[in-house]
Amino acid sequence: MDVELTDVTVTAAGRRLISDLRLRVPSGAVVGLVGPNGSGKSTTLRCVYRALRPSAGRVLLGGDDVFALSLRDSARRLAALTQDSHVEFDFTVAEVVTMGRSPHKGLVGPDTDQDREICAEALRRVGAAHLAARSFLTLSGGERQRVLIARALAQRPAVLVLDEPTNHLDIRHQLEVLALVRQAGLTVLAALHDLNLAAAACDRLYVLAEGRVVASGTPEEVLTPEVVAEVFGVRAHVVAHPTSGAPQLIFDAPLPR
Length: 257
Ligand SMILES: Nc1ncnc2c1ncn2[C@@H]1O[C@H](COP(=O)(O)OP(=O)(O)OP(=O)(O)O)[C@@H](O)[C@H]1O
Known about the structure:
globular; ATP binding; AAA+_ATPase; Iron complex transport system ATP-binding protein; Rossmann fold; alpha/beta; transport; P-loop_NTPase
């Protein structure tokens, strides 16, 4: 299922947060949003998981306007891991992951064996099966992040929207989470701060600056010293990763402001 944003503009507090954004995530592709703090990455994602209605433009999910879908239908198509994904009450990890199944059940539908197996598998995939009986609130930041990713996977969506999915994760878990996101065969739109991880994990990147797309294409096309200098204000060298060949950046000092 593909995702398309056509000329999306978001205005808030008399300011344009994103302007005329055009973006496409082909079915099954992993597309990254990169850009400096405040460039509009989360705002863009919030429009896709319908936490924010654009002032203009449309967000299409499998060709349908996301705001025209019922909540249940959109939750069957799309799962999101957001910056404000949190759990208020003292649920166990297994219960938190089970919440991912709710779009597939009636309002008070019981968990089936299939639901339980899907949730157990999702926890195994993020390396968190051993945490199933723990209270979610007692987990470390990285453990919580992995459990929330498991909840999104348990939702069995076609599209996954991820806002900084590697936040809090140590390097091994960062690589594992991005590898499993790639292997899941889903359509993925992810905001990522780490440009080297983005280059390794994404088929295509969109670079945002001040709410506009300033570059898009494959990581090789986009992550050039010129773009990095212009958008991030940092001088960088690009080298090919010795085994994967993905472009990797080595940074010099920030350029003068
Ligand atoms: N409801 C709002 N009202 C006013 N300004 C807002 C609102 N939401 C976001 N902004 C502003 O819009 C800009 C873009 O924010 P956004 O969170 O999309 O950036 P981002 O690229 O995700 O940043 P970061 O990398 O810091 O997470 C910021 O300047 C932010 O302060």
